[in-house]
Design goal:
Elements (H helix, E strand, L loop, with lengths): L1 H4 L6 H6 L2 E2 L3 H11 L7 E4 L9 E6 L4 E6 L10 E8 L2 E7 L1
Antiparallel strand pairs: 1-4, 2-5, 3-4, 5-6
């Protein structure tokens, strides 16, 4: 979808909350396991912070007890530096190949 339009679509929760929910690289596997445990085709988008930093706020997620990056802007495929497959590993996910 983003390949055709150039825009990275938000999920329903992003649309509702008015920002893109993101995770740092250190957080992404826990996020995948918690929120997408049934997924079989999960991809992580690697987005460097520097180009979008002005529109990112690190905000506390009380249920997780840590701050997560929230992007308040329009996300485009130009922001994405890599697409990484998240693969099943036992009961959770691990980083797979870059696509």
């Amino acid at each position: 979808m983003a390949q055709e339009s150039g825009a990275v679509p938000g999920r329903d929760i992003d649309e509702r909350d008015g920002y893109f929910h993101m995770s740092t690289r250190a957080q992404v596997l826990d996020t995948a396991n918690l929120h997408f445990s049934g997924a079989t085709d999960l991809l992580a988008l690697e987005i460097p912070l520097k180009p979008i930093a002005a529109d990112v706020k690190f905000e506390l997620a009380p249920k997780r007890g840590e701050a997560f990056p929230h992007f308040y802007g329009d996300l485009s495929r130009d922001h994405v530096s890599a697409v990484i497959r998240l693969e099943r590993s036992g009961a959770g996910f691990q980083f797979g190949d870059r696509l």
